Amino acid sequence: MPHKRRGKGAHQTKLLFQPETSFLYLQYYKNCDSTISVPLHTLIPIFVIKYIRGNNIKVFLYQSKETEDNPFHVNLKESSFEYEFCDQLPQNVARCRLPCWYLPDQLTCLAGLCSVVRYIIKLTHFSSDSEDSGKCIELLGHQYGCLSAPAEVSTWTKFCELDMPDACKQFFTSATPILPEELSKFEAHLKQPIRIHNVRKRMQKEKEKENLSPNSNGDIDPILSYAKANHIFAEGPDLLVSDIMLFPCIALMVQNQEMCFKDNFPLLMRWFDRVCESIEVKPLLDSLVEPLEVSGDFINVNPIKVPDESLYKCDPSRDANKTCTSQINVDKNFEWWENSGIESLQTYGCDGQDEKCLDWKELPKLIHPQAGNLPVDRLERKCEQLQGLALPIVELAKQRQAPVIVDFCSGGGHLGLLLAFLIPEATVHMVENKEESLARARERGIQLGLKNVWYFQSNIDYYKGSFDIGTSLHACGVATDLVIEKSRDQSADIVSCPCCYGAVQAVDGVSYPRSVLFAEKGCTEADYLTMGHTADQTEKHSTKCGQGELFMDIVDTDRCLHLQEHGYHVQLDKISPLTCSPKHNLIVAKYLAANGK
């Protein structure tokens, strides 16, 4: 079926851009001798504000309580930007990792460096009529999409938001001179053809200006030739917000070892020079930051070798490293399961409880998934999924006093809004990293007049509040395990319906298998990934559906055993009816010491 084209303005987040009620909270370490020491994730937003002349941005600096004795920092010149110090963070800002936007009139916090910077640009553009503000929105690129994908799913966003700042820190703090791997990755990225919207149309227009035909240079593939030749800036021929965010970190390193960079990273230096030529960023950075010094001799330091590929997750060259799940490996894992002696914890609804139902006709229309613009053929199944999670959460909430419930990966807010209505004494936090999804949830919640909801545009990692019940409906792959770990750290009860088992992957704080028992029985990470891929073979009428169902239960048994090993009473069940979704497993975990918290 053809993809429905979004109308003009459909990419908007439906936030009201109101400078007088928008507050940006940034972290600092010390204030002395006319300088303020700050981390890089504070320098970058301030640098962007100065570059786009965001004079209406209200900046508050909060002194962090660092565990490190001497955390890496840069010294900002105190008189170079406008700000206020604050001694205490608003309650919901304190639940986020800084930097963070606080929009109290819209019940919203935005956390994460890229989200914060994107909102700086939008707020400046939509709240000002100046010529500069009109140009700054161009930094967000086609349909305002630059760096809109969250770091959890986008290699490129993660590179700009986390990897390059970490590389800069490593460059200046390493005991021995080092050229961080991220510099080599960026060099390799700049070698690749650009990936932009309408590259053919753009190429033809430029050829017309030069009075050349598309094949006048004799290239076998003129589009590929154009795509390679025009990788001038980080993402192609246009200067975007990604360039502005990368520049401070790279500039701090270049100004210390310029000759070393010229010798080892010619494309990176070409990019650096182009950025400096396009805008007066170097004088701007110099006016903000005192120079840093790095010790050691870089003469014999060589760059780290990396694969010759781009930093986009969808880069076709990455497919060569992927492997398919073979039936031989599936059979091997099935044999391991049969011989392990581990019993599946799947109860298939045999818990002896009476089946309850929600009366959707008695609920406000805005609570119904239909208000979230779901296709008609999905509505009934979505209602069944929501009922499957909401009912056990209501029961768990009865055992808590004024509980805080966090709906992770909340999407359009179907589950979170339902919980906020069903449990009015609870406070519901919706944590979602996609702008548009959270916008739909916020719009419905505000129309409903719900006072017990707050919206966090944030990755799971950036939310650090305390809570009593954590839940997720179809959090993709490792996101389910991140939700479980976040909840376990809080000794919170858990209700989760996993999804995309084949997308599990080891990340900081999450390794596979999850349980000690699975590991003791000889299950390896490679075996587990095969199990995950097999568990995704659950489409009805598929010849491998039964096989997929089995491995779905095996993976979730491992998750439940992991929770049991950490003091939880766990039930693994199925959402009824099974036709509500191919991914219909339900994990309900109650922390045994909950009443004593």
Characterization of the model:
Strand 9 (404-408), helix 14 (414-422) and strand 10 form a beta-alpha-beta unit. The strands form 2 sheets. This protein has a 12-stranded mixed β-sheet with strand order 6-4-1-7-8-11-10-9-12-13-15-14, sandwiched between helices. It has a 3-stranded antiparallel β-sheet with strand order 2-3-5. The chain is built from 19 helices and 15 strands. With 597 residues, it is of the alpha/beta class. Helices cover 39% and strands 13% of the residues. It has helices at 40-52, 113-126, 131-136, 155-173, 181-191, 199-209, 222-229, 241-254, 258-264, 266-278, 281-288, 327-340, 376-397, 414-422, 435-448, 478-489, 516-520, 525-535, 545-564, and strands at 23-28, 30-32, 35-38, 58-63, 74-77, 84-86, 100-103, 108-111, 404-408, 427-432, 453-457, 469-476, 493-499, 568-574, 585-591. It is globular, with a radius of gyration of 26 Å.
How would you describe this structure in keywords?
alpha/beta, 3-stranded antiparallel beta sheet, disordered N terminus
Quick structural overview:
The protein has 597 residues and is an alpha/beta fold.
Oligomeric assembly = single chain
Give the N-terminus to C-terminus distance in angstroms.
52 Å
- Detail the poorly predicted runs: 1-12, 211-217
Mind telling me the C-alpha Rg?
A: 26 Å
Shape: globular
Helical content (DSSP H or I, runs of 4+): 25-40%
Strand order, main sheet: write it out: 6-4-1-7-8-11-10-9-12-13-15-14
Content of β-strand: 5-15%
The computed structural class is alpha/beta
Could you give a short account of the major beta sheet?
Answer: 12 strands, mixed
- Mean pLDDT figure: 89
E-strand count: 15
